[in-house]
Design a protein that fits this description.
Elements lengths: L3 E2 L2 E2 L4 E3 L2 E5 L3 E6 L2 E6 H13 L6 E3 L4 E5 L3 E6 L6 H4 L3 E6 H15 L25 H4 L56 H6 L11 E3 L2 E11 L3 E3 L4 E5 L4 E7 L5 E7 L4 E4 L3 E18 L3 H12 L2
Antiparallel strand pairs: 1-2, 3-4, 4-5, 5-6, 7-8, 7-13, 8-9, 9-10, 11-12, 12-18, 13-18, 14-17, 14-18, 15-16, 15-18
The structure holds P-hydroxybenzoic acid and fe (iii) ion.
Fe (iii) ion binds next to loops.
Amino acid sequence: MSTDIGNVIEYFQFKIGAFEFKRDEYFAHISWPGGAHSMPVESFLRAMIRDVAWNFFYGTVFFDDTIGTTNQYGRVEFFAARNRDVAGMMQHRYSEFFDTPYIKNIFQKILDDWTNEEFDPLAAPRETGRASGWKNGNNHKSLMRERVTAKRMVGIPGDASLRSDLNGYPVNPHFKDVDQSEPKIFTKPGFENCLHAFNLFAYLSRSDVTWNPSVCSVLRDSLFCPTTEEYILPIIHGNDRMEWFIQLTDEITWVVEDKETGELLAKVYMRPGDVSAMPADIRHRGFASKRAMLLVWENASLSIDKLNHTKMNSFE
Ligand code: PHB
Ligand code: FE
């Protein structure tokens, strides 16, 4: 329960190690030994829910230019004032390591207490109410959404289901022109379980979330993670491996910076059919004026993190 102070209901405060988290009407305030930072609560909740949904993702998830997490696959580093290129800020750098289930659990509690009834941190701004204001209900329904993680491919019996009006996924108004017909599959007798196809454009046209890649097909370590994007990627991703982007519809602009210093390296303007490879030494953030479909192709190999450490140690 949140605390009632006079006629306003306050939000709970949280601690993770020596980090303290507080929110008020407009801001999330984060403090640590020797420093403090505030960010708009919308941005904070949008970033945090993705970090949780992606199980801390690959590499680093910057919530903004000051705080974020780095995945150590089993443990998570939470850092503050990291990689500031302003020399004076470096002395304020602070980080701690936590077991993944521990930090994930507290992030979930923060999200649960700080998200008001009308705010959906996974929706596009045009599709949600505000996060600001004093405590007003909760949005368990939106927070409890399961991220799609197909075992083989969406639509295979027993695997993640296709979307339809009937199971609560209407076509998004930005995608009313998307053909909804499904492919016909003719299989040689005996191979019925080996061949599958579905209309990915129709599937994505019914996505109710933004900037949330979901695993739609899997071949060993190769994951196809398509997603629908609108407005601004709520985190800045500092990858620890290469990933490929294939622009399926509409347009996305990517701002690409040096992973360590944040120095601007490139702007990548992607139109339908464009393919780009994002290397492992950058951080990037996407911008989309209209809802756009993007295929993110990820390499889920567990050995990449070990290779990164071996490489780092060999320089020591
Ligand atoms: C990425 O950081 O590569 C990324 C994250 C979320 C998206 C798309 C791309 O929706
Ligand atoms: Fe990325």
